[in-house]
Amino acid sequence: MTHSLSEICAQLNTIGHRRLLVLSGETLWIDEKLNDIRSSILGDWVTISPSISQGLAGSQAHTLLGQEFLHAIFDAREGLHCEALAILAGTLKAGSLLVLCTPPQNQWATTPDNDSLRWNEQGGMIATPNFVHHLQRTINLQPEVLIWQQGDEPHFCLLQDDSPWQPPSGQATPAQQHALEQLLSADLGVWGVIASRGRGKSTLAGMLIRGWQGECWCCAPSRAATQTLEQYAGNSLVFWSPDELLHYCNSGGEISADWLVIDEAAAIPSYILRQLIEYFPRVLLTTTVDGYEGTGRGFINKFCAQLKNFTALELNEPIRWAMNDPLESWINQALLLEEPQSREKRSLLWQIGSVTQQQLISQPRQLQRFYGLLTSAHYRTSPLDLRRLLDASRQQFKIVKSETDLIGALWMVEEGGLESELSWQIWAGIRRPRGNLVVQSLAAHSYFPEAAEMFSQRVMRIAVEASYRRQKIGLQLLEQQRLTAINQGADFLSVSFGLTPELLCFWQCAGYQLIRIGSHLEASSGCYTAMAILPLSLSAKALCDKATNYLSRDIFWRNDLDAFNLMISEQQQLMEADWLELVGFAYYHRPLAASCAAIQRLLLEYKESLPLLSLHFHASYSINEICQQWGLMGQKAWLKQARAEVRDVILHQRPELVMTVAIP
């Protein structure tokens, strides 16, 4: 017996569940059905779509965090933004439908997906058949999913579970009450409520604010994200944006709050969180760690694990909807969001092997385990990585299998092989094509455009099951990849990582040599980005020797890397590489951060000819202060004048370089 969507929604409201409706067909047919559905079923119908009126773009989905809606539409006809889909599903309350609009099912896998422009490192929009087939498999395996295809009569069945559901009464559940009692009696420390969507994390935070006798401040990525929290807090919320609060604290502002409540904490850069926590006697972090808010399970395994006096609180049962919710079940399977179960060490034997992309995805359990290892080990693994893993090109994979399970994963991305002309344009700041992370950075921010012309392989992710770590399995994985890369004719292997003493030691043990350190803290890890390479060919070994030498000269000018005991060179006379860097700064678009070491060496000899740069680097004036003093209209005007200063020195000292460095 088939039922109408109105009957479906009536049952959902009674039993506290939510369901997915997949609407597949041509554009006009889908638009017509959407109009019929929205007119016959009352609801918020919040929409993520590039073409439907009043729809949000996928990149704007984060503005929905912390809010609740009844019914929603996700338009995937032109592309599927995974993080946006997860966020939207998490905002829906009991009784809701999520309508997923797709091209006709038999055409979906071959339809170009505009979301691929975000992660396809080879450039251009591509179809994503592997991801689509994965989604179609999860749709077909779940009988609770409603499917309506153009040309077919829909057969909508009610759920078999029809037990009545009691919606939240506004009072704390037993789990919330237990957590609340601990928080209200806390003297000092950092507390974390880290759970899946709909578990009442923000509600608990609001109850803490209402029940606390003293003062509480709240911080979140946006004021809109605190809607639920504010509802339960009862009083007017003392809200700060993360940047505003950090500036206030760092400036010596008076802190009268007993608690700092940080809602949606994983969406805030960890280096900001780390600083904020130090200013308050008690801190409550609430967040999910499924990757679509900005940070994956590494938030628990790395960030929270490093905090002093940290206590984790658990909220497992959903509150916004009933247990065994069909929509949550489908989202977890489709985007592999469920946390993998930790395996106990059962075997001393394992073997390393290579797998192709097709072999990886043809076995759903193997794919889930491979991806699960990555999410457990890394801050930044997110559903976007799942899309890249399934459909991007120029990738290689290795796995480690014990007798019973997959315990290690290595994900490599091929880079380089660019034309000389393009490599020099990247060096000059004229072009920045998509992809080739390490080799482009070595060209754009370091001294080596030739690195982009070589063939290399970058370590995208490496992970080993926790119970099998400290046995050098990761090092053996990398050694096997080194042998593979030699046979494939690669020039070098590379890696980009957040610089910590532990990670630096690991990569050095694997034979990788540090050749670049970024100048800004990376948002998710709070570390400087480091890049290292393992040279394989003679040309790469020569490049590596030069790069390590140049890095030791540049580190001389930094005072923020003392913890790493890096080699520092006292040799600061201008070299040919410095003059080339200065030409790039003066005549092209090399950024100041890339050229600052060469500029400071130039200042040692020609300080009087470089007044603006001298004020900044020697007198430590900020660029804004210099602009005010010299009457310059902002930082762009200062940079233009600074380039002109260097250009004048080059014309007087090395005019021949201007002719020899000609970028097409």
Topology diagram in text:
Elements: H1 5-15, E1 19-24, H2 27-40, E2 46-48, E3 72-75, H3 82-91, E4 97-102, H4 105-108, E5 112-113, H5 116-119, E6 126-127, H6 129-141, E7 146-149, H7 174-184, E8 189-194, H8 201-211, E9 216-219, H9 227-233, E10 239-240, H10 242-250, E11 259-263, H11 270-277, E12 282-287, H12 298-303, E13 310-313, H13 326-334, E14 350-355, H14 357-361, H15 364-377, H16 383-391, E15 395-402, E16 406-416, H17 420-427, H18 437-444, E17 455-464, H19 473-487, E18 492-498, H20 501-509, E19 513-521, E20 528-535, H21 538-555, H22 576-587, H23 592-606, H24 611-617, H25 623-630, H26 635-653, H27 656-660
Parallel strand pairs: 1-4, 1-7, 2-3, 3-4, 8-12, 8-13, 9-10, 9-11, 11-12, 17-18
Antiparallel strand pairs: 5-6, 14-15, 15-16, 16-17, 18-20, 19-20
